[in-house]
Amino acid sequence: MTEPNEEQKQPQCTCIKDPFAVLPPEMRPRPQKKSNLRQVTCLGCGLVFWTNRETNYCMDCEKKLGQGS
User: Fold this and answer.
1) What SS3 class is residue 49?
2) Which has the closest alpha carbon to 53: 32, 61, 45, 67?
3) Closest CA to 44 of 67, 29, 62, 22
């Protein structure tokens, strides 16, 4: 008969935990980027901020540019 403790033991093989453990670091899959945010320095005032918009102006400078036209 098997002991009850044997059934509850975790596997000792690392391939169960990390299937890519045997690969060298350069061949392991890269973690995917979780956000499409990028860090930008505003071209108008120099403010550094994070955005997902395509413009490189902060909201205030973008409003000023829109009013000046």
Assistant:
1) strand
2) 61
3) 62
For 16, the token pair is 């169960």
Q: Are strands 38-41 and 48-51 parallel, antiparallel or unpaired?
A: antiparallel
Structural contact between residues 40 and 53, judged by C-beta atoms closer than 8 angstroms: no
Could you list the pLDDT tens digit for every one of the 69 residues in the chain?
Answer: 555 555 556 656 656 777 888 889 898 888 777 688 999 999 999 999 999 999 999 999 999 998 865
Place of tokens 């997902």: 52
Which pTM was predicted?
0.47
Residue 45 · residue 62 · CB < 8 Å: no
